[in-house]
Amino acid sequence: MKKEMKLSMKRISTVILALCTVLSLTSYSEGKEVPERAVLRWNSGTSGNVLLTIAEKMGYFKEVGLTIENIPATSNADAMTLLSTGMVDIVSNSGTSNPLQQIASGVDLTIFGGHMVNGAMPIIALKNTKWNGPQDLIGKKFACNPSYFALTGAVMNLGYKAPLDALEWITITNYNDAIAAVVRGEVDYALLGTGQNYTVKNMDEVDIMCYQSDIMPNYSCCRMEASSEFVKNNPVTVKLVLKVLLRAQSYYEANRNEAVALHANKIGTEEDFVAAYMLDDHYLVSVDPLLNSVVRAWGILDATGFLNENAKNIDIRDHVNVELYKAALNEAAEEYGDEAPEFYKKARAFFAANND
Predict the structure, then answer these.
(1) Which residues of 132-147 are buried (b: 16+ CB within 10 A; e: fewer)?
(2) Cα(219)–Cα(292) distance, rounded to whole angstroms?
(3) What is the Cα 102 distance to its own chain's centre?
(4) pTM for this structure?
(5) What is the fold, at CATH topology level, of the domain defined by 39-117+221-354?
(6) Angle, helix 235-254 to helix 256-267, in steps of 10 degrees
(7) What is the mean pLDDT of residues 144-150?
(8) Which fold has domain 122-215?
(9) Is residue 207 within 8 Å of 31, Cβ to Cβ?
């Protein structure tokens, strides 16, 4: 009898424990989707991702059951290596050319979102140089890696079928060296990175001719990508990431100065340095995957010889997932729309215009 009572009590305890576990899970997940992966390894380069910064600071990731592990890399190529070897789950700051070249070479990646649409990348020349447009580059020395498709695309649009021969493209890997080359008269023009805005805006020797986005609007500065297997196996996780970043984007657009301070603190630099590009009208961030811009970039890179021959057998649209973003945008608008109704209206219009 005592033995039977002990067994009964044991069964009751087991049932109670199971019920508590179910209730605990229900209280966490009621009305919410649970991510397949709770911890995400993320590389956002040396300049960081302001939307990621905001989402972490405001606790948005925590609210949906996600934790971000920031994994550093010293260059775009290193970030791509980390991704292709499975050392990170998501990369958001390695441009557009880099992931597209990886895909062309046979690495199975999926672009599912974005970071910078336009990166406030200035084209500079010596003080008082006249600028009439990209036609001024023809026949000149231009410190710019020709894999920057916005520029080669602009030259192609001028009617040059061989844009690499229309001017002298000079690759200078260090942007500060490129500035020095302009000052010394070794090159006529130089394309600089986002982080050089503070420097050149405070120089007497050079002027900003234009920005890359003046030449090709919404050119796609940085896409957000992961392995195709990761996206396929973790659709809820990816969708939650996009929802969180959309919420961060709405905060960013309404609180730009606060975002400057948050991001400067995150990357360990002065607020004036970050403000020099983040408060510039040529700096545009969006979580949108920008399918149309990616397809355009793929075509230009292929036409200029920067993609593996294997690219001929690839439909790049198969490597851009817009459905998860569309679902995330709809859910975010429903859940957070009261916070910023105009933002979500604009985001939907932007999606419709950039993802045919």
Answers:
(1) eebebbeeebbbbebb
(2) 10
(3) 16
(4) 0.90
(5) D-Maltodextrin-Binding Protein; domain 2 (3.40.190)
(6) 120
(7) 96
(8) D-Maltodextrin-Binding Protein; domain 2 (3.40.190)
(9) no
Using DSSP's 3-state secondary structure scheme, residue 293 falls into helix
Tokens encoding 142? 């231009």
At 30 the pLDDT is 53
The tens digit of pLDDT for each residue in 261-309 reads 999 999 999 999 999 999 999 999 999 999 999 999 999 999 999 999 9
* 221-235: burial string, b at 16+ Cβ within 10 Å, e else: bbbbbbbbebbeebb
Instruction: Give the tens place of pLDDT for each residue, 218-253.
Output: 999 999 999 999 999 999 999 999 999 999 999 999
* H-run or E-run covering 124: strand 122-126
pLDDT tens per residue, range 72-103? 887 777 999 999 999 999 999 999 999 999 99
> What are the structural domain ranges in the chain?
39-117+221-354, 122-215
Query: Please, what is the Cα angle at 252 between 43 and 36, to 5 degrees?
Result: 45
CA angle centred on 244, ends 241 and 245, rounded to 5°: 85
3-class DSSP state of 63? helix
Reported as a pLDDT band with limits 50, 70 and 90, residue 46 is: confident
Q: What is the pLDDT of residues 186-203, one digit of tens each?
A: 999 999 999 999 999 999
Cα–Cα nearest to 318, from 294, 300, 348:
294
Per DSSP bridges, beta strands 141-143 and 90-91 are unpaired
Tokens 């690759």 sit on residue: 171
Structure tokens at 124: 């500079």
